Amino acid sequence: MLAAEGILYPDPAVKITAHHALVSRFKDLSEIGMNHLNTLGGEDAAQNSQLFWETLLRDVERMRPELLILSSEYIFPGMRQGELTAMRDGLRGMTQDIVPFIYIREPAGFYASACQQDVRMGRDMRGPGPIMLRARLEALIKVFGEAKLRSFARSALEGGDILVDFVTHGMGRPDLLDRITREDANHSVSAEACAILQIFRQHVAPERRGLPDPYANALTDVIEIIEAEQGLENRARLKPDVARKVRQCSVDYGWLRKTHGLSFAELDYEALEKTMAEPQAALLDGGVEEIFEVDTTIRDQILAALMLRMLGFRNTNRNLMQKITPKRLWFSWFRGLGLRRALYLVLRIDQR
Question: What DSSP line would sit under 4-65, residue for residue?
């Protein structure tokens, strides 16, 4: 449908929906994180990046699109000025009209999202500290001459929806909204799910630290089903003092408001102007409970539902869960049986 409208959104060349191969084409692969490298095919990353680039050149030459959309979360803030310059020069072989379009979260939301990704990948979370974006954003604007910035806050998005907002303001084609099919692939993970996943990743395939794990991904899917069945909210909320700390020390957001007019209701800009810049926080030794508000009752209900699925029962009625979730059930039962064996069995039963 997009092609018929003169719009090209290239096939990413690997089994992801974004164009991370574009970043790898202009970045030293030795500096790319293991997760990013793995999504590009591991040892075949360089070959896949080159394949994506060659295919992109051919598609642009063949289609002559009015609009080319390239998307990757690794462009900003992941690329340095020299890498951005190389990418710009490569893209200028197709067009001189290149406009970066960037969505920016408020500091606490940015930090919460990063912590969730760390848990999913089996990495240590970083402690609450400043979200730094000024240096990389200044470098990007210096290279491309401009950048369009949008708030990722739901209240600021067109229709409260990221797809509607991008089609309207990024593509400038709101007339296409009724013809675009939505596919939600990146779901939020609750604090309770994060607490369970963190234990799981510590005990199952620890050698895959920093990499996606198929069993952890399957467990996430099962928990999402259970939360939906029980009507549980699947958003992770930072502890108030953690959110406050991140917002109070993210001084780059004061510059962002003053220079680009992008502001967030959650921030006290008067206080930010008086705050001294802090270094990046160190990695945490503790667990999810130090960062997020974890409801232990809900966590235990989810674990009880996982146990029922392991035993072959699919009825995870919420009232039933509340009756069979005694204090410390998840701890004593799972540790007694062995976490690796118990949760592997859960996933195998659910995937039959």
Answer: GGTEE----SSSSSS-HHHHHHTS-GGGS-HHHHHHTTGGGHHHHHHHHHHHHHHHHHHH--
Sequence letter at residue 153: A
Q: What is the pTM of this model?
A: 0.82
Q: Are 130 and 277 in contact (CB under 8 A)?
A: yes
What are the tokens at 322? 């509340």
Between the alpha carbon of residue 270 and those of residues 148, 254, 255, 347, the distances in Å are: 25, 9, 12, 50
Strand partners for 292: 238
Residue 170 burial (CB count, 10 A): 18
Residues written for the chain? 352
Report residue 169 as tokens: 């303001």
Number of Cα atoms under 13 Å in the Cβ half of residue 276: 2
The beta strands (E) that lie in the chain are given as 7-8, 67-68, 101-104, 148-151
- Interstrand relation of 67-68 and 7-8 (parallel, antiparallel or unpaired): parallel
pLDDT by position in tens, the chain (length 352): 788 899 998 876 555 557 778 888 887 766 666 666 666 666 677 788 888 889 999 999 999 999 999 988 888 878 889 999 999 999 998 988 999 999 999 999 999 999 998 998 888 999 999 999 999 999 999 999 999 999 999 889 999 999 999 999 999 999 999 888 776 666 678 999 999 999 999 888 788 888 778 888 889 999 999 998 888 887 899 999 999 999 999 999 999 999 999 999 999 999 998 888 888 888 888 889 999 999 999 999 999 999 888 776 655 555 544 444 444 444 444 444 444 444 444 444 344 3
C-alpha distances out from residue 50 to 71, 142, 204, 329, Å: 17, 26, 34, 52
What is the spatial distance between Cα 106 and Cα 144, in angstroms, rounded to a whole number?
Answer: 24
